[in-house]
Every structure is written in C-alpha cells, then in structure tokens.
Amino acid sequence: MPHPIRPSLVADVARLALVSLVMTSPAHAFTSTGDEVADAFLTILDGRHGAVEDYDSVSLEDGLIVFSGLKLEGKSAFDNLAIQTTEITNGALSASGTFEAEEISLNGIAGQGDDVAFTLEHLTMSELSAPTGDDFLKRLETTPHLVRYRESEIRAANIQLEDREPVSLGRAYILNEDYQGNTPTKSQFIIEDLHMPKDALDRKEKRTLEGLGYEAATFDVRGFMSWSPEEGTVDLDDLSVDLQDGGSLRMSFSLGGFTEELMASLQDPDTEDSSDAMSTLQALKLNKFSANFEDNSLTQRALKLRGEQLGGDESTAIKEVETTLPMMLSMLNNEAFSKSIQSALSTFMEDPQNLSITATPPQPVSAAEILGLVLLSPQMIPTLLNAKVSANQ
C-alpha cells in the first residue's frame, strides 16, 4: 500500500544513515582487513540495520583508512545499502575498547527497499566515540545516546517511495557541545532545502497542496537547544520553520525539572511503568513558552481554498471561522480569554501579518497540573499559564 512522504521520513532516513554506523551485534561475517581499527569500524557497521556483505578494497595509511565499495545487506527499511567510499581519519581503539575517530566521511550512499529508495551524496561525523563491549552492544538499540559525536552533516539526500517523485534534502547539520556524560548540554540543528513536490505526496495531500497553489513545499528548519544540569532546565531557543512563499513559525520554550537523575531515567529503556511516567509528569515544569507566525501568503491561500470549498471566496471562509469559533471556545468557559482569541484571529484574517501566543506563568507549572486542568477545568489554564494571544504586533 502506498505511503505518504512526510518531513519526518527525511529525519528517519537521516537517523538510519547515522544509526547504521553504530548498531552492532556480536556475530560478524565480513572479511577481516588485518587492522584492528578498520575491523572495529566494520563491526560497528555490521548490525541490526545492515550486515556487511563485502567491500571492494581497503587502504590503510597513517591516520587514514579508506574503504571502497562497501556493501551491506539491509535488515529494516532497506534490503541493501551501498557506500562508494568511506574515510576514517585518525581512528583508534582506547584501552577500554571504545572506538574513536576524528572524522568519518561517507560518500555516495544508496539504499533500496521494497517500496522506498534513497541516495545520500555525503555524510560526515566528527569526534565520534562509541563503546564496543558486549554490554554496550546489547543496550545500544534502546540507548543510542551512548554514541557521542560533535558534528554530523548530511548533504544532498533524495528519498523516493514507489513510483512517486523524490523528496530531496539539501543539508542537515547537528552540532553537539559540552557533554555531561553522554548527553550534550548544547545542540544546534539545521535543515536546509527540504523539498517536497506535490507528486511525492499521497492523493489527499497532493490535492491540498495544489489547492493552496503550490507545486511543491520547501522548508528550512533550525534551532538551538540547551540543558543546564545544575538548574535542571531545558531551553529551546528560537526554533524556526520557514515555508518558502508561505510563512515562518518561530517558537521557544523553557522547561524545568530536567535534573541529571530525570535525564538518566528518560534514557533508561527499563523505565516503562506508569508510576515512572507520573513521576516524570510531576517533575517536568513549564517555565515559559512563545510561538509567533509571520505570514507570507499562506493564510490568504488557506482562506481562498476554504472559501472555494464552501462555494464562495475568502470572505466566506472568514465568516465561517467567526461563526464557529465562539462555539468551539465556549468549552473553555473563560469569556475574557475567548474574546482575546476571537479578536486576534479576526484582526489576523482581515490583514494577515503575524499571530502570536505566549505563556509566562508567574511560577513554573508542572505537566501533571496542566494535564489535570485539561481534563477537569480547562477554563483555568489561560489564567494559570498567563496565556496571551495577539495579532499584527
């Protein structure tokens, strides 16, 4: 059955390309290179997501290992993976058995499955560190954070489902800094030129994209996240999602309660029961949140499409929103906040510039408390969070 291509699929393939470097199993079928570092790399590559079948050649020089024609038998989404050249710069095995490399560079990656194919021109990872002991091998599938790296970059990726047009990714980049154990306390991420043609989508999504007047949707995403173990806070600073000829979404938040103990429990695959989940909800707290949408034709496109579906024009769509919104907001049972939302949306639809929402509670609010109010007293949420909605500010 056909599957729609979605932005998360690009992330899935990027993750698979990275994870294929670090998913391992104790049994190996590849031919030894005669070099312990090169063999350690093949051991890492030879795992649940792909068993090393063969390689055309390997060059062993001072500080540089180069594989040509690596071939892997896939064990997940892809039946086979092929890598034209693989370069390992200053690779080594520590006394504890950790594989380390100043940089790993893969060029010309291609994968093929039953209904999906992908190509990746270039993948690099710098300052890679991965333990290789048996305990690590058993835990890695559920605890991938055991693998550390400073930078990772993907260039020129293409993903195609069945006979559809491919989705392309120009560049994806991650920078991890200031590790606390195996967790970075600072991470920057960038996605550039994620291009989704209408013929890459399923029938419903294609119809929506055409109705909005797009031949393709092209996105850029970037953001910066930090974790302070001392303060127990996780901050997402200025996450931006830009739709070409559509608009830009900016979002930021600050969460509390992320102590080293909680972070360790979240990364522990054995943390599964409901009491652990409730403890996590009680520990996590919202410090602040903001989101802002800057329009660049997307709102007008959406109103025009909805108006046409109703047999009218943009004004027909605006009237529908103004008629149905009060009924929807009545469930909040908060007249003042409901009126502020109606006023902001009315202003925005008449002249789409920007729309913002903020939550700045006077003191941190736990996730458990927010969830409880959603279920029992939703009218109290705007006051508790000091939530505000505004337009064209």
Protein model, in words:
The protein has 393 residues and is of the alpha+beta class. The protein has two domains: 7-283, no CATH class; 298-391, no CATH class. It is 29% helix and 41% strand. It has eleven helices and 17 strands. The chain has a 17-stranded antiparallel β-sheet that branches. Helix 7 packs across helix 8 (314-329) and helix 8 (314-329) runs antiparallel to helix 9. The chain is globular and about 75 Å long. The model is unreliable at 1-16 and 18-27 (pLDDT under 50).
Count of helical regions? 11
Task: Spell out the helices and strands N to C.
Answer: HHEEEEEEEHEEEHEEEHHEHHHEEHHE
Using the alpha-carbon principal axes, give the shape: globular
How would you classify the helix and strand content by structural class?
Answer: alpha+beta
Spans of 5+ residues with little confidence (pLDDT < 50)? 1-16, 18-27
Radius of gyration: 25 Å
**Domain tally:** 2
- β-strand percent reads 35-45%
| Share of helix, binned | 25-40%
Instruction: Give the beta-strand count.
Output: 17
Largest sheet: 17 strands, antiparallel
CA-CA gap between termini: 47 Å
The residue-averaged pLDDT reads 85
Give a summary of the structure in a few sentences.
The protein is of the alpha+beta class.
What features would you highlight for this structure?
17-stranded antiparallel beta sheet; 2 domains; 29% helix; alpha+beta; globular; 393 residues
